[in-house]
C-alpha cells in the first residue's frame, strides 16, 4: 500500500501472537452430540494454548514498556497511564504536537530525533564524563556518526560551528520536551489517583 509507514518495532514486538486454528469441522449431520463433541474439542484446545498465549502477551507487554522507556516492574497505577500516554503520543493524531500556523519547510527535529539526541548526549556524558557542550562537540567532530541521525557531514569550519549551535539548541528543545512529557505523565497519575467522587 502506497504511503504506509513501516513498523517502528522489531523482533518479538513485530511478530504477531500465534493463535491455533479451531479444530476441524466435523462431518455428517449437525446434532447435539456432534456439536458438543466439537465444543469440547475447541475448549480443550483453548485451554492447552491459553497459558502460552498469556505468557507471550506478558512478555511482549514488558518489551513494549521497555521500548517506550517505562519500567515494566513499576506499580500498575504508574505503569498503565504511562504506557497509554506513550502509545497515544505515538499513534493518536489528537495527542501529537504541532506548531499551530507553522509554515515553511517540514519540521526535521521531531520528537523521535529529539529523544535520540537527548539519549545520545546522556550516554556520552556518562561514558566520557563530559558536559552537554562537550558531548555535542564530540558528535560534531564525528561526522560519520552524526550524519546517520542528524545531519550531513560538514564541509567547512563555518558549517561545523553552525552544526554545533544547532545541536546545542536542539538539545535544549529535547530537554524541554522531556520535562513536559514527564509533567503530563505525572498530571495523569495525579488525576488517576484521585478518589472517584461519583
First and last CA, distance: 47 Å
Helix and strand run: HHHHHH
Query: Helical stretch count?
Result: 6
What is the makeup of the main sheet?
none
- Helical amount: 55-70%
Strand content: under 5%
Topology:
Layout: H1 32-67, H2 76-91, H3 111-128, H4 132-141, H5 143-146, H6 157-193
Helix pairs in contact: 2-6, 3-4, 3-6, 4-6
Walk me through what this model shows.
This protein is mainly alpha-helical. The chain has two domains: 77 residues, no CATH class; 86 residues, no CATH class. Helices cover 61% and strands 0% of the residues. The chain is built from six helices and no strands. α4 crosses α6. The longest helix has 37 residues. It is elongated and about 85 Å long.
Summarize the structure.
With 198 residues, this protein is mainly alpha-helical.
What are the salient characteristics of this protein?
61% helix; mainly alpha; elongated; 198 residues; 2 domains
Amino acid at each position: 500500500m502506497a504511503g504506509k509507514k513501516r513498523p517502528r518495532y522489531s523482533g518479538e514486538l513485530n511478530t504477531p501472537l500465534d493463535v491455533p486454528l479451531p479444530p476441524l469441522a466435523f462431518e455428517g449431520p449437525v446434532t447435539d452430540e456432534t456439536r458438543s463433541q466439537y465444543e469440547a474439542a475447541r475448549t480443550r484446545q483453548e485451554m492447552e494454548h491459553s497459558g502460552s498465549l498469556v505468557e507471550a502477551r506478558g512478555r511482549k507487554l514488558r518489551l513494549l514498556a521497555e521500548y517506550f522507556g517505562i519500567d515494566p516492574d513499576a506499580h500498575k497505577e504508574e505503569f498503565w497511564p504511562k504506557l497509554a500516554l506513550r502509545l497515544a503520543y505515538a499513534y493518536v493524531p489528537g495527542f501529537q504536537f504541532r506548531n499551530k500556523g507553522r509554515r515553511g519547510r517540514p519540521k526535521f527535529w521531531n520528537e523521535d530525533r529529539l529523544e535520540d539526541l537527548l539519549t545520545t548526549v546522556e550516554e556520552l556524558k556518562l561514558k566520557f564524563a563530559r558536559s552537554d557542550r562537550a558531548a555535542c562537540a564530540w558528535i560534531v567532530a564525528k561526522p560519520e556518526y552524526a550524519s546517520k541521525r542528524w545531519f550531513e557531514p560538514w564541509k567547512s569550519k563555518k558549517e561545523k560551528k553552525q552544526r554545533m549551535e544547532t545541536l546545542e539548541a536542539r538539545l535544549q528543545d529535547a530537554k524541554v520536551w522531556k520535562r513536559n512529557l514527564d509533567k503530563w505523565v505525572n498530571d495523569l497519575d495525579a488525576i488517576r489517583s484521585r478518589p472517584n467522587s461519583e
